[in-house]
TrEMBL record:
<dbReference type="InterPro" id="IPR037522">
    <property type="entry name" value="HD_GYP_dom"/>
</dbReference>
<dbReference type="Pfam" id="PF13487">
    <property type="entry name" value="HD_5"/>
</dbReference>
<feature type="domain" description="HD-GYP">
    <location>
        <begin position="114"/>
        <end position="309"/>
    </location>
</feature>
<dbReference type="InterPro" id="IPR006675">
    <property type="entry name" value="HDIG_dom"/>
</dbReference>
<protein>
    <recommendedName>
        <fullName>HD-GYP domain-containing protein</fullName>
    </recommendedName>
</protein>
<dbReference type="InterPro" id="IPR003607">
    <property type="entry name" value="HD/PDEase_dom"/>
</dbReference>
Amino acid sequence: MKMKSIYSVSNQDRLAKPIYNDLGQTLLNIGVVLSDRMIDRLKEKGISYIYIEDSSTTDIYVEDTINGKVRSKSLKDIQENFTTISKQMALGKAVDIDGLSPSFSTIVKEILSEIQSNKEAVSMLSDVISYDSYVFHHSLNVTVYSLALGQKMGLTDPQLHELGLGAMLHDIGKMSIPIEILNKQEKLSDEEFDQIQSHATVGFEMLRKSHTLSLLTAHCAFQHHERIDGSGYPRNISGDDIHFYAKIIGIADVFDAVTSNRVYRRAMLPHEGMELLYSGAGTLFDKDAVDLFSKIVAIYPVGLEVKLSDGREGVVAQNNKNLPSRPVIRVLMEENQLPCEYDLDLATELNVTIVECETTIGAYTTAR
């Protein structure tokens, strides 16, 4: 199979991987031949990339980082819990975080179990899902990325559980913001931007009153937009004043934000998202944490079409977990444009690099 941008697929392409909605229900199944109408609908649904059948890559299959059943159940539970919180806030009632925390805790435990048993680099692009609410989907993805990074950093299971809860609830304050502002395609007014930024404080105030959640969970919501040079919000704190959980979540938050399709801009590919993180390493983000993050994420997802520094072209066939920036490439075209078919492991062929890959066009912004 090949991974293609939704903006470069054409009618008559045949799906090689199902497309689901955020409740785990199949929207389009394997083998469906795409029509122009289907492609337009997938764009409207926020799908950035899909997998199509290809005769040269029939043996290439993408493994999901999180089991489909676990993902759909987690998304369903997050959506139900966040919706309950939103309704309580709309009615002016006290938010019952303690009543919902056992459910959040169960979700984190299931995701952590999946990550600890996963033997591949983390790739969320492999889960082709159409979602109705970005916040629910984003909360799950940030939890996955944060737990994978925390595990790489050697955190204990209790620490990972605490980190996972902080990651899952980092944007809970957005439940207080009108959906028309969260999904606004035009530039935000100063007042609207202030309202967006308020979610960090609102989330902190909500979570710190819990009797069942750690105060560190509340500080994850409070600090995930702070930056080590003091340029973040809401308090402009810097360096070691930012808890390392929040530094982890801040990296995961930005990476998922820029690699996800949004109403106000299209998604970057993972290697572009990583380049953005590295552009802020040492100023905005902890450099050591960014370095570790680059070692656990599939920077070049399986199925991605690439061009190599020596002129050869092909498709990412497999990721090297301990060196995801140097995947195995299924070479399909020699530098003289003659067709071929063989695998090249960039982990051993160090004189060859990836110089181009399929990208989408659009303006990129960091997380709101």
